[in-house]
Design goal:
Number of helices: 13
Largest sheet: 18 strands, mixed
Shape: globular
Number of strands: 47
Distance between the termini: 73 Å
Structural class: alpha+beta
Helix content: 10-25%
């Protein structure tokens, strides 16, 4: 008989399979060990625990002890406990008794169906690196997409046909089995001092490994991973992380639990690619003047790295470098506000102060509690709130100088500072608490007092569990490695990484696709990606290189971004497909919902560096949740409208070498589909509401522009703000009604278009 072992330490199992009272999957037991059964068959089995202590491995599984009932903020659950049971292997020397005790707690929730598990550990410190590994089989695995750690700070997608092919550390794995069409999701968790990652062990077994990065640290409770299964791959991570956060009591909160800072609903500019670390007040003002002269309605400026007072890569003071900013930050902020009427200015700083932390012999180093880290690097003390005053004093000064928000970089480098000295999750959680609470005092999001609190902070170089799980108030995070405008390979990589990384990042914050430039051939390629990101959009580049024709379609005339309802996701036919090497475009989608209408947006990109051109197909199902017997599609590249239906369910398209295209999809309602402003990337986002009756369709727009709508028949008449337009003021051809901006007669503010049937 095959023996199945299960350690579900810190284990969360979630099935997003509807709201029925009956379980759609089951935790069955063989010889006391769990096996996870879904409608399509066994999904997880053959669990094995390997705890390494002084490089000696101890193997085992768990035997069930008891079942009780309970409830928490995630709902009611049944609670099963299991005790650790060591094992020996035939033909091998007897294993010495394990020097630890462990007990597994499994909480099985019903609505949504979820299983949350935690390991109680009582024993000596496991090895600091991969000290705990839970191996498992993913039965009948067919194909999957993982998000792989690139360096310390970033994630990239990778695609596999066998989980044992995964290299390095991975944050999540989404896959389908050989049977059934449902999706399965496994996400690594962290907590209790430990940080997890999906990886292959020394014994070539896939599983989740945990590290503390502190050889003296002995954990007590370890969340391990989350599993979800269901027909909706976009709901799985949301349900998994929601249950994980509720069950494990993380300090952080999830994206939908925090407000979005209004500052980032406008177009911005960042100094980094323009000047790198040679930024000065004079250069900033030259760029701002150029941007304004090009008619670009900016909402904010980011003063990136290079403004601080530093020595030997360490922070020596809170104030700006006096040579670069002779009037301090206050002087340049005042000029940006008063002369150029840009309402907001933010500054960059590193999480630990600067790249190598804080100079302990400086005035700020002597005035605040620092932690003496590895290789002489000091950072604000992350223990028990001791370092919060470092950030609080700094942020009060920045606030007094007119700074509105922060970009906090280098967050995932805490392991380089506290390695071997402090457990990584303890280090990062403590430092995030210091920063988040200080930012809440000086840079809060202005919301109704009854609403959830937030801060105006961009998290950067931070795509790691120990950071994302502790973003309590900050709600924007960089979503990929930097944008490198002169690297042809990176141009495609950047879009490829961002599209798939959003599947992870968007659970914790709105994805920031990084700054981009408009002086290259990839300008519209990048602009369309930013429009679809669902997060902030800001540009960079030398003065005079700005191209308004690329940027103005992103915004309304006052600089407000036209945005999706939520961050975009790869379409289902892209989600598990390596579009960087397979001969098909990458497609991402999002929705725009307004009273009386719901639209879908699909962007397509050629991300294959070896493909000079690609062909693809669009279908209404590319936008999850978009329903209707007929769907009108407006293709930006051709300026034409097409109709998808049961008779014509697919629309072919083609892309060039660095090609991209954008499609607006709107269900046809009584012969009409309102497309919005065609001169914008996200045209439906310019709509305020749509109202229909038997006589007409009334469309309220945020402002005038090139309006478009699909109409099965030519309207009897067209009105703007109650005045009938002459026939020459609009066109109707092949189902597409177009009203050029000039036909609005210079109207400002909101306008109404009425199509009379």
């Amino acid at each position: 008989m095959r023996i199945r072992f299960a350690l579900m330490t810190g284990f969360i199992l979630i099935a997003a399979m509807g709201a029925s009272a009956e379980s759609q999957w089951a935790i069955k037991e063989e010889n006391g060990a769990p096996v996870i059964q879904t409608p399509s068959g066994v999904a997880l089995s053959q669990f094995r625990l390997n705890v390494k202590i002084h490089q000696h491995p101890f193997f085992g599984g768990f035997k069930r002890e008891s079942v009780t009932q309970g409830s928490d903020s995630a709902g009611s659950y049944s609670l099963k406990t299991y005790r650790f049971s060591p094992i020996s292997f035939p033909g091998m020397p007897p294993t010495p008794p394990a020097p630890f005790q462990a007990r597994l707690e499994l909480r099985h929730y019903r609505h949504p169906e979820a299983l949350v598990a935690t390991l109680d550990y009582n024993g000596p410190p496991p090895d600091a690196e991969d000290g705990v590994h839970l191996g498992m089989n993913l039965d009948h695995f067919a194909r999957g997409m993982a998000l792989h750690r690139l360096k310390l700070w970033w994630l990239t997608p990778t695609f596999i046909s066998d989980p044992r092919l995964l290299a390095g550390e991975n944050t999540l794995l989404l896959w389908q089995r050989m049977e059934g069409s449902d999706y399965h999701l496994l996400v690594a968790l962290a907590g209790g001092g430990m940080v997890g990652g999906l990886k292959v062990s020394d014994f070539d077994q896939f599983g989740v490994s945990f590290s503390s990065h502190d050889p003296k640290f002995a954990p007590r409770r370890i969340p391990l991973f989350a599993y979800a299964a269901g027909n909706d791959p976009y709901q799985l991570p949301r349900d998994a992380y929601a249950a994980a956060f509720a069950a494990n009591g993380y300090y952080g909160r999830l994206r939908w639990q925090k407000p979005y800072p209004e500052i980032f609903r406008s177009l911005g500019w960042c100094s980094w690619n323009a000047y790198y670390q040679q930024v000065t007040a004079q250069k900033l003002l030259a760029s701002v003047q150029s941007l304004k002269s090009h008619g670009l309605p900016l909402g904010y400026v980011i003063i990136d790295d290079g403004w601080l007072s530093v020595h030997d890569q360490k922070l020596i003071g809170y104030a700006a470098d006096a040579q670069k900013f002779p009037q301090g930050l206050q002087g340049v902020v005042r000029a940006i506000h008063d002369q150029y009427h840009i309402p907001h200015v933010g500054v960059w700083h590193a999480f630990q102060g600067y790249w190598r932390g804080v100079d302990p012999n400086s005035s700020i180093g002597k005035s605040h509690r620092l932690f003496a880290g590895d290789q002489g690097q000091y950072l604000p003390d992350p223990r028990n709130g001791a370092g919060e005053s470092f950030y609080a004093d700094w942020y009060r000064l920045l606030e007094s100088e007119g700074i509105d928000f922060l970009k906090v970089d280098n967050q995932a480098s805490n392991s380089l500072f506290t390695n071997g000295l402090l457990a990584l999750f303890v280090s990062a959680e403590g430092e995030q608490k210091n920063l988040q609470e200080a930012a809440l005092q000086s840079f809060p999001v202005e919301v109704n007092p009854a609403a959830e609190k937030g801060v105006k902070v961009i998290n950067c170089m931070a795509m790691s569990l120990e950071n994302a799980f502790n973003w309590r108030y900050s709600n924007i995070a960089r979503n990929s490695e930097d944008y490198f405008p002169r690297d042809a390979a990176d141009i495609k990589n950047h879009t490829f990484y961002n599209a798939y990384n959003s599947y992870w990042t968007s659970n914790f914050a709105y994805p920031d696709w990084d700054e981009f430039q408009t002086d290259g051939n990839d300008a519209e390629y990048q602009a369309i990606g930013r429009a679809m990101s669902g997060g902030p959009v800001y540009i960079t580049g030398a003065p005079g290189t700005e191209r308004p024709e690329v940027l103005l379609p992103l915004v309304l005339s006052d600089g407000r971004l036209l945005m999706l309802d939520a961050p975009s996701m790869p379409t289902r036919d892209s989600l598990l497909t390596n579009t960087a090497i397979e001969p098909k475009p990458l497609k991402i989608f999002g929705t725009i919902t307004r009273p009386g209408m719901k639209a879908g947006m699909v962007a397509a990109f050629n991300v294959d560096k070896a493909a000079k051109g690609e062909t693809g197909e669009l279908q209404a199902g590319d936008v999850d949740g978009l329903t209707g017997a007929e769907t009108a599609v407006y293709q930006r590249s051709s300026g034409r409208v097409f109709l998808l239906s049961g008779r014509h369910p697919r629309m072919p398209f083609s892309l060039g070498d660095f090609g991209s295209d954008l499609f607006t999809l709107v269900p046809v309602d009584h012969g009409v589909a309102v497309l919005g402003l065609l001169n914008k990337y996200l045209g439906p986002a310019a709509i305020v509401r749509v109202e229909q009756d038997d006589q007409s369709v009334a469309v309220q727009l945020q402002e005038a522009g090139d309006f478009g709508a699909y109409c099965a028949q030519r309207p009897a008449s067209v009105e703007i703000n109650g005045k009938r337009l002459p026939q020459c003021a609009f066109t109707y051809s092949q189902g597409l009604l177009k009203i050029p901006q000039g036909s609005f007669g210079g109207a400002t503010g909101q306008v109404e278009v009425r199509l009379v049937r």
